[in-house]
Amino acid sequence: MRPEPQPVVESDPYVDLKDFVDSLQEEWLAEEPDLPAQGLPCVARLVRLGYYIARRVDENFERFGLTRGEFEVLAVLVRNPEADITPKILQTKILITSGGLSNRIKRLEEKGLVVRLPDPDDRRGVILKTTPAGRDLTLKAVTAHMRVENDFMKGMPVEKQRVLAQLLKELILSQQGALNLNGLR
């Protein structure tokens, strides 16, 4: 009698490898075995991954003469060309204080990438719009940014990317209330 063929299981090349976080957790638990370290593997990896991502994203935007923060402002305006985006609305779309936002807007204005228009509903208020140069630069930068993101994820199968995206979404949504960030996305 012939043995039944075994299903082919795609092996995960990373499952048995150790990383910095594995060592970190082992060292802490060796020193303090009762340490409540169950969150450490995920959070430490997210922090580390955040550093790697920020570095590559920042390097990419530098090629366009932009900071990540400046790009965030431009991206909101370019994605919403028909909307009247005020600084207050912009602040709800990106994680930034009003003072930091004012500085970003000022720098973008100086670069000729955004303009402030009078807000017809508020005499003291302004509506922000991109200039044609700002729109063109943003579209070039976002295309390059998407390439960086895709390149970053290319080592992970698409189905795992979907699962990871869902898990990260759940984690973010679970934290928004605790951080009082309900209006931010």
UniProtKB/TrEMBL annotation:
InterPro entries: HTH_MarR-typ, MarR/SlyA-like, WH-like_DNA-bd_sf, WH_DNA-bd_sf
Coiled coil (residue ranges): none
HTH marR-type domain mapped to chain residues: 43-173
Superkingdom to which the source organism belongs: Bacteria
Protein name: MarR family transcriptional regulator
Species assigned in the record: Sutterella massiliensis
